[in-house]
Amino acid sequence: MLGMAWPTQKSAGMYSRLESQKTHLKSICLQYHMYLLLNSHFFFLLKNKTGLTIFFLCAYIPNTEGDHCKWTEVLKDLEQIKTSKDIDVSLYTANTDEDKECQEPIMRCFFLEMNVILHECNIKNCSKTQDVYNILKNGNASFKNELSSTTSKKCKECEEYEEKSFTEFIQNFVKVIQKECK
């Protein structure tokens, strides 16, 4: 019988890249396994008390996941890059004391500036490139590409903020996310 061999080097490299890409939905794997369990043994489980208990507990898991801040993974990656010596840029940095109604434009501004950091990392081949990429990926997943059309006219555009150092930018970004998670 003829078989096809997979190249181990490329597969290992691809696997390590996939392994390093984090998302804020880490529980998907657990939920998928529970789905498979329930799907294959659904009727058997519903015949006894233990099966019903497991079914209701599994149904409750997605609801508890929503109680956590959707920016948790972004915060973790910000902690990873804040000490980077490779990144030396000036970035438009929003104030942490802006109005509550300006939170979405402020967050979008921080993520736009993260694109500048990613570009800088790609040029300098810095050690934190993957963490910066993860921040952007998780940020985009958290926004779900929804643009709010109700932004107040008193909210500043990103370019209207003062340019600050990378360190100050990260500190303000962390403060804004922590305020959002409260």
From TrEMBL:
GO biological process: immune response; neutrophil activation; positive regulation of cytokine production; positive regulation of immune response; positive regulation of T cell proliferation
Top-rank taxon, per record: Eukaryota
InterPro entries listed in its UniProt record: 4_helix_cytokine-like_core, IL-15, IL-15/IL-21_fam, IL-15_avian
Keyword terms, alphabetized: Cytokine, Disulfide bond, Secreted, Signal
Main localization (coarse): secreted
Keyword match Membrane: no
Molecular function as annotated in GO: cytokine activity; cytokine receptor binding
Protein family (similarity comment): Belongs to the IL-15/IL-21 family.
UniProt-recorded name of the protein: Interleukin
Protein's organism: Anas platyrhynchos platyrhynchos (Northern mallard)
